[in-house]
Amino acid sequence: MRDPVNGIAPELLVSIFSGNQFRGSGEAGNQLETGSTVFFRKAGSAAWTALPMRFSTAGGNNKYFVAVLSITGFGVDDKVQYYLKIPYSDHLTTFLHGNDAQSFATANESEAQADPFSFVVAAQTTNFLTLDSGPLQGRVFAISGRLQLTLMLHELAHDTVQSNDHLHSDFYMTVEELGGTLAELTLDEPELFDIGANSFDFTHVQPVWGATPDVLSEGSLVILRNKAVADR
Questions:
Q1: Which of 97, 95, 100 is nearest to 208 (CA)?
Q2: Mean pLDDT lowest for which of 22-36, 73-87, 209-223?
Q3: What are the strands, taking DSSP E only, across the chain?
């Protein structure tokens, strides 16, 4: 659900994702961008701050939405709480909440507010590798997971080729070259990639319209990941 589970320092952006099966068999639901929101606050505060979610990508029968949260206003050891509001064109609005072990869906917002997701802000990290490709820069932190490294290679390849064409031969050849260089780096400086086991996971959530206790489906998923790569 969160990548990494711990070690979310103030200098890192946090991307909060939701994903839904919008077509196909089973309990499909078409999530709407308008109204999709992440609400967050410092634990103990009365007010929640709303952060809109935007469409990110689609793959197969699934659509994904994202909100990027900056935690620079929080201090070390502060607990950040959050929950998601997911509106649909064909079902009831669903609120997602829970903990690191399990996510829950409800139609009652007050229930989500009473039991939100949370993480604790960690101390600032200084153990990182900086990559510079002209207008595109990136940092690989010691806590960076596989998703961040994949994203970094993908975007650096786009910048090198100066094209958004994923079928361009120069694009995938550049990805291969960058991947090989990164593999050499892991052998030369393995301490940069000491991220621990099981730092990235997908948590599936039963949608509220088909809710059955202890039954999980492809109806909705929530992912929280640290974004260690700086976008252009």
A1: 95
A2: 209-223
A3: 2-3, 13-21, 37-42, 49-52, 54-59, 62-70, 79-86, 94-98, 103-106, 117-120, 128-133, 136-141, 203-205, 220-227
**Please, what are the domains in the chain?**
2-123+196-227 (2.60.40.10), 128-193 (no CATH)
Three-state secondary structure call for residue 112: helix
Whose tokens are 């970094």? That residue is 152
Indicate the residue type of 225: R
- pLDDT, tens digit (0-9, with 9 covering 90-100), for 85-129: 999 999 999 999 999 888 999 999 999 999 999 999 987 665 555
Residue 37: CB atoms within 10 Å = 18
How does DSSP classify residue 144? -
State pTM to two decimals: 0.60
Distance, in Å, from the CA atom of 46 to the CA atom of 230, rounded to the nearest integer, reads 32
